[in-house]
Amino acid sequence: MRPGRLLRPGGPIAIATTVSLWLLATINSACADERYEGVAHAPNGERVLYRETHWLYAQGGIRQRLVLYRCPRGEAFARKVVSDSPSATAPDFDFVDARDGYEEGASTRSGHRYVYTRKNAASARKQTALPERRGAVIDAGFDAMIRDRWDALSANKPIAAPFLLPSRASFLDFKIEPLRRANDAASVRHLRMALDTWYGFAIPPIELRYAVADRRLLEFRGIATIRDSAGRYQNVRIEFAAPTKSDSAERQAAQTQPLANSCADASP
After folding, report:
1. Contact yes or no for 241/24 (Cβ under 8 A)
2. Residue-wise over 52-65: b if at least 16 C-beta within 10 A, else e?
3. Which among 29, 42, 207, 209 could disulfide-bond with 221, CB atoms 3.0 to 4.6 Å apart, if both were Cys?
């Protein structure tokens, strides 16, 4: 496989970063009216690359998620909104990065599903009817799928599921399997996620560390969707704090907060 293909839209690295976005928008989604923080570091250091603020709440009886992606100094540059409709495993969602205008999402209208992408602010939005796929997982539906199949993972059994890749408007098969580490505490479970195809070797696997008690994601290691200031996808280690009670006024302000088109310190 040519190196250039790794970086093209829909190529292996792009696939890996899309998966990263799904994972990082799903943390603690079984809870409601909560807020939590994630801090992305360089994989082998403590330098902060970006921050995430997540809010979990219900609206009209449907679970919602709001995520702001922030520069190291705190300016919000990207936002994501997820609604667990029509299902928890295949929700509607919208994501926008104000630094270049990139957008992607899935929507439901009159009983039909659609997927869209927008390359940058100068490009037109491309929308496609979403193909049907049994057991499909869309974006934050990853978390619901993991919870539904937690017993299999606890029994050291790998699981598989088709995930939507918006840039291709199609589904790709991924495998999630438990990892056994000699120094793992009984209270922690490691998972490994990789593309379940012949060219899966071209995509670095994602490693996840969960708390067994509440199935909360504690750490993410892998290539992130959030790019650096030069537009390059970056390898990160993200640590997540325990959730706290949500401030609805703060959340409502975050839903309409203007997004910065760059970070003052030249970080993402």
Report:
1. no
2. bbbbbbeeeeebbb
3. 207
Report in angstroms the alpha-carbon separations of 81 from 17, 49, 66, 106.
Answer: 18, 22, 5, 11
Count CB atoms within 10 A of the CB of residue 94. 16
Helix (H, G, I), strand (E, B) or coil at 144: helix
State the angle between helix axes of 12-24 and 141-148 in degrees (0 to 180), rounded to the nearest 10.
70
CB atoms inside a 10 Å sphere around CB 101: 14
Distances (CA, A) of 23 to 28, 129, 219: 11, 24, 11
CB 40 within 8 A of CB 26: no
What ranges do the domains of the chain cover?
Answer: 3-256
Phi and psi at residue 239, to the nearest 5°: -110, 135
For the stretch 186-221, pLDDT in tens is 888 999 988 887 766 667 888 988 999 998 889 999
76: nearest Cα among 93, 53, 58:
53
